[in-house]
From TrEMBL:
Alphabetical keyword list: ATP-binding, Kinase, Nucleotide-binding, Serine/threonine-protein kinase, Transferase
Class of enzymatic activity (EC top level): transferase
Record PROSITE patterns: PROTEIN_KINASE_DOM (PS50011), PROTEIN_KINASE_TYR (PS00109)
Residue ranges annotated for the Protein kinase domain, each copy included: 1-248
Protein name as annotated: non-specific serine/threonine protein kinase
SUPFAM superfamilies, per the entry: Protein kinase-like (PK-like) (SSF56112)
EC number: 2.7.11.1
Basic residues bias spans: 320-368
Segments of skewed composition (Gly residues): 296-309
The species this protein was found in: Streptomyces caeruleatus
GO molecular function list: ATP binding; protein serine/threonine kinase activity
Classification via InterPro entries: Kinase-like_dom_sf, Prot_kinase_dom, Tyr_kinase_AS
Residue intervals passing through the bilayer: none
Region: Disordered, residue numbers: 286-374
Amino acid sequence: MGVVWQAWDETLRRIVAVKCARPDDGQAARRLRKEAQYAARLHHPNIVPVFDFVEEPDDGTGGEATCWIVMEYVPSRSLAQLADDSGGTLPPEDAGSVGCQIAAALAKSHALGVVHGDVTPENILVTEDGVARLTDFGIARALWSDVTQTHTTGVVRGKPKYLAPELVKGRSAGEKADVFSLGASLFASVEGHSPYGKVDHPMAYVARALQGHLEPAERAGRLTAPLTALLEPDARRRPDAAEAHRLLTRAAPPPPEVQGKLRDQASHTHTLPLASLTLRLPHAACRTASGAPPGDRGGGAVRGGGPGHGRGRRPDVGRRRQGPGARRHAHGHPARRRHRRRPHGRPLQAPRRHLARPFRRHRTRPGLRRVGPL
């Protein structure tokens, strides 16, 4: 769907992750916009937060706009990378710790009416201190949207090896499908293969899902019972995310130090207003808050702002009126204009410049470093 870049926020002095949709993929741009809308509603220590959404209008040729989504940069490895670095599998207690945290994130997401739709080991990030974060809500949808998780061509979205059987059968993607995908991701991390078996072709996974063929866990240890529940083929008997969190917590809770970090993050979790974001982006230009087109300077950096971001002039209090037409007192001295007392500082008015304007000095030196493809 796109690529992720590491960028530098020049105003708030921090590293951020910038996800860009391919400019020639209109569907990807629309999904990226929807991802930003859904993810921005979710504030949880186990969900990667979204800071902003930037859109560069088309160049007048009738093409799709280029979209960027600005997220927190999380130095981490995916669950898939952790398993690969450990020889292909993880200890059950490590996988269980990750599963507890992601189940909590899904419970929060589902409580707000958002289905992730693509829970895979690649979309589960784990930091060096063991905190797991769920990312990439690219094919998320609202729970009340009664649609199947398919493209217009009928191809099922998501990776077949982690898809719930009901999705393969064309049914609506509910919250229980996320629970199955979490179980499949944890199964793969401890067993080294999908619960649908050691097959290579995507259609083989689809065939086994249609048949309800699931491999039993052999190395899961204490996670065997929770994984069996999460991988229940019948969605009606499968636990929801909150119950999955309880099952995983009883079997393999996160270490105390991880729980402490999560409590600290939860107490400080809030949305940072990106009032003056300046990102060095290639071809950067975005729509202003008022809907006006960006300035005519060259692309290179994008600055977003809010009311009061522009330069304002303090009201002149007590200025004398001069000139030939000035009103005068009896003694010939200019009259003083009477002003009401006003607070000092910038007036509460619209900024004098565009809220989002590219800067010429960054025109030839984009400050992005690519993190990797999605």
